[in-house]
Amino acid sequence: MIMDPAVMAYYERGGELTRLRQGRGRLEYWRTRDVLRRTLPPAPARVLDVGGGTGVHAEWLAAGGYDVEVVDPVPLHVEEAGKLPGVHSRLGDARALPVPDGRADAVLLLGPLYHLPERADRVRALAEARRAVRAGGLVAAAFISRYACLHESIRLGTFVREESRAADYRSLDTGVIISSKEGGFRGYGHLPGEILAEFAAAGLPEPRLHGLEGAFGLYGDLDDWLDDEGRRELLLDAARRLECEPSLLGVSGHLLAISTA
After folding, report:
1. In the chain, which ranges are continuous DSSP H helix?
2. Methyltransferase type domain: which residues (predicted)?
3. What distance in Å separates the CA atoms of residue 45 and residue 25, rounded to the nearest whole number?
4. What is the mean predicted confidence (pLDDT) over 23-49?
5. Full-prediction pTM beyond 0.90?
6. Does domain 5-145+189-260 match CATH 3.40.50.150?
């Protein structure tokens, strides 16, 4: 399988080394971790972390006793994930996983579906996850919300620029995300209903949808909430209570869909 060269170049710059470990990206990290800790089978279950990047989630999973393998198409990511204690890593593509049928107790797709603009490729990746997980195992997939780019542009103030508005409106109309910045992010933004349809097309039971950041991700400075453990737990509890409310799903920058194969 061939990865989009622009996407490969974007990730080879090393942004995933810090994106979820610093700044406001930590809200996505803590919320993803929170949902997974409540839904994954208990350790020492075998977890296949597809598109697991530099191992930000594989790290805490391995520390918790899980048998974790990261499969990622970016050599830099595979190298960095492989340095983490208890984490195995190798090159691979979500659309053709290099593992036998039923290998895992849980398959995580916490990034690959961001970068597959063609529906057939996304369904293929989900079908591969279904193949790789045992009967009764868990498949968890993350998605960018269709509305995320517009929300982010307003928050950052870049919406005043004509080229930024054009990119945001194109994303709203088509789902295709192409940053107006040179060498910027490229991906695909989902509507909640699209996610359900793609799971069904891949032969997976209807997933439960979780909004990760919720409206909190639209707020300004979150450092005071994320730096302090006590305040962070209050924020996570509030987000947990709202995470599956259908009327709020599209507000989240990221959605997490969980299904039992």
Report:
1. 5-12, 25-39, 56-63, 75-81, 119-132, 148-156, 162-174, 192-201, 223-227, 229-242
2. 48-140
3. 27
4. 97
5. yes
6. yes
